[in-house]
Design brief:
Mean pLDDT: 92
Helix content: 25-40%
Largest sheet: 6 strands, parallel
CATH class of the largest domain: Alpha Beta
Distance between the termini: 46 Å
Shape: globular
Strand content: 15-25%
CATH architecture of the largest domain: 3-Layer(aba) Sandwich
Oligomer: single chain
Order of helices and strands: EHEHEHEHHEHEHEEEEHEH
Radius of gyration: 18 Å
Strand order of the largest sheet: 1-11-8-7-5-6
Structural class: alpha/beta
CATH topology of the largest domain: Rossmann fold
Number of strands: 11
Low-confidence stretches: none
CATH superfamily of the largest domain: NAD(P)-binding Rossmann-like Domain
């Protein structure tokens, strides 16, 4: 089974990005909004701050507690939209269920929507870009391949389907973990946040497994959707957790911040 080295690829992109940012000499700043962070969100934010520091990108982190009102969060976003020193804005997901994620994210100005979640955003979502890079590393030809994504929301499923469609890569997505499509997939993309759920007996021989489900256990261990030991004798390719899509997603977010400085009317 071939293991994808996401950290190595991320370091290559980071080095190139570092040179570009130094050459341009612009001051870049990313605003991060989080509400009652879970362990996985804390890991994501920590990694973003570490990579941003290397690139000289400033981070402005706005933390809200679990009881924060939706309008308070929206007011903060509107303030950041007007702040000429802020290059990009992200809302760390997931948000508490009582909050409307779509409504909150829609308040981010498109030119600062570096997470790329809005319909008309000029940016590709970093996780989608990371999935695309890993897919291309697994195969040069997707013709005739059955690609299935196991997701936990239509929101992300549609975003993935549209973005990959632009690359002429056709996929189906399912939310049902028991779907028969999972075992028939030549390429399985899993972003459901179901730790170690995908076992060897659930996949096709020589299947390509793109694991984008990152969960932090009670023991503070970072786990993916795929049970690596179980699939090791059957899968042909795996993006591991940790060390697969995670590092790439962080770097590609910061790459979007760099490009946001080109789009912004304030730079």
């Amino acid at each position: 089974m071939k293991i994808f080295n996401g950290k190595k690829k991320a370091d290559e992109i980071l080095s190139d990005l570092e040179k570009r940012i130094k050459k341009d000499g612009k001051e870049l700043k990313l605003a991060v909004i989080s509400v009652s962070e879970d362990d996985a969100s804390k890991v994501f934010i920590k990694n973003k701050k570490k990579a941003a520091e290397r690139l000289g990108i400033g981070i402005l982190h706005s933390r809200f507690n679990s009881k924060a009102g939706q309008e308070d969060i929206i007011r903060r976003i509107e303030s950041l939209n007007k702040n000429k020193k802020i290059t990009g804005i992200i809302v760390q997901l997931p948000l508490p269920g009582r909050l409307n994620e779509n409504k909150i994210i829609s308040k981010v100005n498109l030119e600062k929507d570096v997470d790329g979640f809005q319909k008309n955003s000029p940016f590709i979502p970093p996780l989608v870009s990371a999935i695309l890079l890993s897919l291309k590393a697994s195969s040069k030809n997707f013709k005739g391949k059955k690609i299935v994504a196991l997701v936990n929301s239509d929101f992300f499923g549609n975003a993935l389907k549209v973005s990959l469609g632009k690359e002429r890569i056709k996929i189906d997505y399912v939310k049902n973990k028991k779907s028969s499509k999972i075992k028939s997939a030549d390429i399985l993309i899993s972003v459901c946040g179901c730790p170690s759920y995908i076992k060897g007996d659930m996949i096709k021989n020589n299947a390509v497994l793109i694991d984008g489900g990152i969960v932090v256990s009670k023991e503070k261990k970072v786990l993916g959707d795929v049970d690596r030991e179980s699939v090791s004798g059957k899968a042909g390719f795996l993006t591991p957790v940790p060390g697969g899509l995670g590092p790439l997603t962080v770097v590609l977010l910061l790459k979007n911040v760099y490009y946001a400085s080109k789009y912004s009317k304030n730079n």
